[in-house]
Structure formats: C-alpha cells, structure tokens
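Supplementary Note 2. Why include the ligand at all?

Several targets in our set were suspected to adopt different conformations when bound, so apo predictions alone were not considered sufficient. For every target with a known small-molecule partner we therefore ran a joint prediction. The input for uracil is given below.
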Amino acid sequence: MSNVVVIDHPLVQHKLTLMRRKEASTAEFRQLLREIATLLAYEVTRDLPLETTKIETPLAKIDAPTLSSKKLCLISILRAGNGLLDGMLDLIPSARVGHVGLYRDPHTLEAVEYYCKLPLDIGERLAVVLDPMLATGHSAVAALDRIKDRGAQAIKFVCLVAAPEGIKTLQEAHPDVPIYAAAIDSHLNDHGYIVPGLGDAGDRLFGTK
Ligand code: URA
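The joint prediction is reproduced in token form.
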C-alpha cells in the first residue's frame, strides 16, 4: 500500500498487544495509548526540516541543527483522538492543538460537524490528524474535508489500528495524505468494528462501558 507507513518498532508492537487484551484496565489502556503516541510522534516528525544555528558549547562555537520554522498542529478527531494528544505533546510541547467533532446523521448517514476549532494559521502548519482507529474511513475523510476547507495543505493522518477498508476509502478521497499506523488488521465486522482490533477505543479510553 503506497503512502502508508506501518510503525513496526518493537516497543510500539509490544504496547499495542498489551492494549488489545480485553482484560487491560482503563488506566492501563490510557497509559499505553499515551506511550505509543509518543513513539508515533517520533516517527511522524522524522522528516521535519532542519536548519543550523550558531551556538557555543563550553568548549567550542558550532553550527548546530535545530528545527526550522515548520510549525505543527495536532488535530484530534473527537473523542478517541484525545487519547493520542498528551503523549504527542510530551515530545512536541509547542504544537498547537485543534479538535474536530463529527456524528453520523441516522437518516442520511452523512457525517455532521458539531465542533471544529483549528488555529487560524493552519495553512502554514503541518497538520497531524489523530484518531486511534481507522475503521470505515468515513469520519476520517469527513474530518480531512473540513480541515482542508479551513486551509490546511500539509497533512498526515495518524492512527493506531487501521482496517484495509478504511485505508482504501481514505486514500481514494485524500491521496495526498500519508497514513501512519501501528498495525493493519484483517477486516471490519458487520458493525464496523476492526477485527481483531481492540474494541471501542473511546469507551476503553474513557471507561464508558
Ligand atoms: N472505532 C473503534 O473505536 N473501534 C473500532 O474497531 C472501529 C471504530
């Protein structure tokens, strides 16, 4: 699959396995998601441009690498995307944060926006869009439609577990957006859940079931 990066780092894979277990507690699930998010942030920022700055160590003057002015915005697709925010912010504390909330209209089955707050200068930032589960891909596509409408140009999509169906849908609608995932699972079941997956990420994260 082109434009899909599977992050197969052993720490990510180990922590994901711990999260998938049905007996993982809410606290364990939340903590593991936070830790994996930090590792995903490391991968998703791998190609950020660098420039050199003159600094002085106690021993010498050097031209040392620093991040160039490319600014970031992490965008959580509510609500499960929030579970990836803190771990990423641990590594990128100055990133801005946006939120997009969508629900599915039961009659039209269209995604309806109920919340969208992004920085005004989103067009000048790398937008890193977060949702742990890429299942059907419909909410990811709808969220990216809105984020692009607000001016975002450089976008990456980060999830934990992706279904092949969701990857296909997202790539067809937004071929310019690379997808980062810790795992690509087998398929979706009749209820739109990823199999084997990890269940409902929002419920497991917030303990609402
Ligand atoms: N959302 C989830 O939280 N889990 C799935 O398996 C699919 C969508």
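The chain has a mean pLDDT of 96. DSSP finds six helices and 14 strands in the chain. Comparable summaries for the other entries are listed in the accompanying table.
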